[in-house]
Design goal:
- This protein has 178 residues and is of the alpha+beta class.
- It is built from nine helices and four strands; from the N terminus they run ααββαααββαααα.
- It has helices at 3-11, 24-38, 72-77, 79-83, 91-95, 123-137, 139-155, 160-166, 168-175, and strands at 45-49, 63-69, 100-107, 110-119.
- α6 (123-137) packs across α7 (139-155).
- The protein is globular.
- The relative contact order is 0.16.
Length: 178
Amino acid sequence: MKESESLEQAIHETVALVPYDPQWPALFNAERDRLLGLFPAQLLDVQHIGSTAIPGMPAKPIIDILAGVESMAVADSLCEPLLDSHYTTSAEFNAALTDRRWFMRWANGHRTHHLHVVVLGESDWCRRLRFRDALRADPVLARRYASLKRELAARHRTDREAYTRAKTTFVLSIIGDV
């Protein structure tokens, strides 16, 4: 498969959950180390977030990474180097974001990583870690979220944006406001 075909397939990939894979933390660690090696001065902290960061949680097998930087200007300065480092992004999508920049890594027609570059310690950083930590700390809450994810993945299999939007009420009930 050509790289352009692989990217196109990854962009339009369906919502498909898989059981928790104990290799996900190691995959995160490898990518975190790679990113810190590429941007040692710019990345102030790198955290594993999303469902692959919650032991036992079914997930789209995509490693979500939260990278903290000093400012959105620094985040913007990383765009070209990240594109040169096997990530892609949507300039149109990022232009609509005020508090983060989003990047995707893929292989063989599948998304492998999502990278969210945000200002360290600001509200988006805190909300994402608060949600992860709440699910890690409360198995009952994690099971409720897993059940919701399965239901929504079945309902929105071909619409990633609808799947994500449909989880919003649950997420907000956990994180509240910063």
